[in-house]
Every structure is written in C-alpha cells, then in structure tokens.
Write a structure and sequence with these properties.
Number of domains: 1
Radius of gyration: 16 Å
Structural class: alpha+beta
Order of helices and strands: EEEEEEEHEEEHH
Number of strands: 10
CATH superfamily: Nucleoside Triphosphate Pyrophosphohydrolase
Number of helices: 3
Low-confidence stretches: 39-44
Largest sheet: 5 strands, mixed
Helix content: 10-25%
CATH class: Alpha Beta
C-alpha cells in the first residue's frame, strides 16, 4: 500500500489508491484506449472521447502487483505480458472539481505504475472480457500521441511516467509545455 493510505483504499487528501499500466508492443508503441461513454458530459468533454492508458483502483486487501494483473484482464482482456519495470514511487493526479463524479469521496488518484511488454497478437485483446467495457476501442500509439490525446489533467502524469520508464524504453518524449496545456 502507498504511504498514507488506509485499509479502505483511501490515501491522504481523499486520493484513491490505484495502478496504471504502460503496455507496449514489440515496436514500443503504447496501448491506448478510448473510454466507453456513460451518457454524460462534464466540462464540455464527452467521456467517450477520452483516451487513456489502462488504470484502476486497488481493492481492499490487494497489493499493487495483484491489482495490475487484474486490471489488465478487466480492461484489455489479456495478461500475455512480460513485466519490464515498476515505478519507484507513486504518482498522483487531481480530478478537476467539475469533472468529479457526483458524491464521490475521491479528489484524485495516487497510482503505482507498471511497464509491460505485450507478448501476443493483437487479436488476443478482449475488451468484453468482464462484460462491462472500460474501452470502446483501442490502438497502438507513440508516447507523444498518448500525451497529446489524453485528458488535460493527466498529461503531466503521463510525461512523468514515460520519463521514469525511459531507462528501459526510448519513448522519444517531447517534454514541451504544449503537451500539457489545457486544450480540451
């Protein structure tokens, strides 16, 4: 568990404890999914237009390693992966007030990130594995596209995660301010 996190999965300042996944293929492109719309729109951003890397909460009694493999199955329908690295620390992001779920006790997430290489064929991905899709579609993308197409409040986190894992993979990050500006 992260420092400052209780047994209920809530970290200091009401941050949800979670894992994030950088899943790369043999060409070092990143798995990038478009979220399934839930019929709502906040801050003029339709949820079905949000692209992100797989992530999810750590359940009570679960450790980050168990959570990351569960999330891989839930979101991508595969665990045909090889772990390359785990982040040395925890990364955080705050969800803007107007983007938070109504009555949620969480203001953001504190995430442990993992870098995996996908070892299979694209046909192995099964977005319907658990019955309720997180992603409507997915694609392989270079890291700069992942940053630029992601929701604005996750861009700096993505840059930081790619930079941490850059000793294992050359992501070619363009670490410029236009990657993280609030253009959505």
């Amino acid at each position: 568990m992260a420092d400052n996190c209780g047994s209920d999965g809530i970290c200091g300042e009401n941050m949800r404890q979670a894992v994030g996944i950088v899943l790369i293929n043999k060409d070092n492109l990143v798995f990038f999914g478009r979220r399934v719309g839930r019929g709502s729109r906040k801050n003029n951003i339709k949820y079905s237009c949000i692209w992100q890397m797989p992530q999810g909460g750590i359940e009570i009694g679960e450790n980050p390693t168990d959570a990351v493999y569960r999330e891989l199955m839930e979101e991508a329908g595969t665990n045909n992966v090889e772990q390359i690295a785990e982040s040395s620390g925890w990364f955080e992001y705050i969800i803007p007030n107007d983007m938070r779920r109504k009555n949620s006790r969480f203001v953001g997430q504190r995430q442990k990130w993992f870098l995996f290489r996908f070892m299979g064929r694209d046909e192995e991905f099964n977005l319907d594995y658990v019955g309720t899709r997180e992603f409507g579609t997915w694609k392989w993308a270079d890291a700069n596209t992942v940053i630029k197409r992601s929701i604005y409040f996750k861009r700096k986190l993505y840059i930081d995660v790619f930079n941490e894992f850059s000793r294992y993979v050359d992501f070619g990050i363009e670490n410029r301010s236009e990657n993280i500006k609030n253009s959505d």
